[in-house]
Design goal:
The chain is mainly beta. The chain has helices at 3-20, 31-34, 55-67, 75-80, 105-109, 121-124, and strands at 41-43, 49-51, 71-73, 84-85, 87-88, 99-102, 113-120, 135-142, 149-155, 163-172, 178-180, 188-191, 194-199, 203-208, 212-214, 224-227, 230-233, 238-247, 267-271, 278-282, 292-299, 302-303, 310-312, 315-318, 324-330, 333-338, 345-351, 358-364, 370-372, 377-381, 390-394. The chain folds into 2 domains: 1-30; 35-394, Tachylectin-2, Chain A (5 Propeller), CATH 2.115.10.
Length: 398
């Protein structure tokens, strides 16, 4: 009998004894936790795939029709119309060499929206710019209602003069209407013209930055889509429509029962050191080790699909760390960050497959990661009210 079978037998005997004594049998340990490695470990990628399912074609027809009904815009238009100013780093990082900025006071303090995902033009292109500028995109989810997800379009061309504007994500529901995208958006990744937004239980939603729509002002902040002949978006003046998506078979549930169970798409990042470029997605498990990190190949302006519209994972790994909020990889090095609530500093882990991880301290509440290779910096943002900032720390990978 193997060690795992002996342990399983022992647990079963203990559980039976507890029941006979009138107690409650202990809950079984999830397999993904029981098998969690002590080091970053490569595992089989064979169980993991995503399917396009014809969504791009469906959305294309709807967007073509809506383009005739709404004023269109692009990233340059949104940046030129930025209506909020960032502030110099206004909260202590406790990290030597940190750079970055704070959001405007209202965004720093609001309990209604929580920042999560972060990506930038250095992910999007080899030049590190988009629309002629250095740009960051940050996702926020509505924690107080059903307005969905907004994306901050940040003009970071001049770090001393940061300006930004929030844009609402929408999903076209017909040739004449759209609705808010009500997901957590814990991670975002930007390659070429496409923004990939993590949809925790299902997969990845895709948005094309070449197509944005301008919507009417709404003092009530309550209207969305077509209402009385006008298009609204909860008073956000620009919306970014979904153009497609990639979904897995089944939906993740936590704690995950098995390493082959459906994935949780909690965060994501672009790795420009691979050929082709890849997007690495990862999972958040509360108090449980063994989160899976999965690499997806990019081809042009989408993930690499086969003739049947299926994307096969290029590689997969398991992490020994708990409560992970972000991942970055470059030239064989991996970074993952851990949040430890609203009162304890976060942790940044660095490792290679099979190697011993090193760790360093981060500010409270770190989220998604993006690696700026040309500068040797990893960027993240903190999520909790009155301590929010977008910041980088010096880390040279590879």
């Amino acid at each position: 009998m193997g060690m795992r079978k002996r342990i399983t037998s022992l647990i079963g005997s203990v559980s039976a004894a507890v029941v006979l004594l009138g107690g409650t049998a202990p809950a079984p340990v999830p397999e993904v936790q029981a098998q969690a490695p002590t080091r970053l470990t490569e595992i089989s990628a064979a169980p993991y795939s995503l399917a396009e399912n014809g969504g791009f074609e469906t959305y294309a027809a709807r967007i073509a029709s809506l383009n005739d009904r709404l004023a269109t815009a692009d990233v340059a238009d949104v940046l030129a119309d930025a209506n909020r100013a960032g502030r110099p780093l206004c909260h202590g990082t406790g990290v030597s060499g940190a750079t970055g900025f704070c959001w405007a006071t209202g965004d720093d303090n609001t309990p209604d929206w929580y920042p999560q995902g972060l990506t930038a033009s250095w992910d999007a292109s080899e030049s590190g710019t988009y629309a002629g500028k250095r740009v960051m995109l940050a996702s926020w989810y509505d924690a107080s209602g059903d307005r969905g997800v907004r994306i901050s379009f940040v003009d970071y061309d001049d770090p001393a003069d940061v300006r930004y504007r929030h844009v609402l994500l929408v999903e076209p529901t017909s040739n004449t209407n759209f609705r808010a995208v009500n997901i957590h958006a814990g991670g975002v990744a930007w390659v070429g013209d496409h923004l990939y937004v993590m949809d925790t239980g299902r997969g990845i939603r895709v948005f094309d930055l070449r197509t944005l729509w301008r919507t009417a002002g709404d003092p009530t902040k309550a209207r969305i889509g077509l209402v009385d002949g006008e298009y609204y978006a909860h008073d956000y003046r620009y919306v970014l429509p979904q153009v497609g998506g990639y979904t897995q078979t089944g939906t993740c549930s936590r704690p995950v029962s098995s390493v082959t169970a459906p994935l949780c798409f909690s965060y994501g990042a672009v790795d420009r050191s691979t050929s082709p470029v890849t997007i690495v997605t990862g999972e958040y498990y509360d108090g449980i080790a063994g989160a899976r990190l999965v690499r997806w190949p990019v081809a042009g302006n989408g993930l690499a699909v086969d003739s049947s519209g299926v994307v096969a994972a290029a590689a997969a790994y398991q992490s020994p760390h708990t409560n992970l909020q972000g991942v970055a990889s470059y030239a064989g090095d991996f970074l993952v960050d851990r949040s430890r609530g609203s009162s304890t500093r976060g942790i940044l882990y660095r490792s290679r497959v099979g190697g011993t991880a090193t760790s360093s301290s981060l500010p409270i509440g770190p989220e998604d990661l993006t690696y700026q290779a040309e500068a040797g910096r990893v960027w993240t943002q903190s999520e909790y009210p009155r301590s929010r900032m977008v910041f980088s720390v010096p880390v040279s990978l590879g």
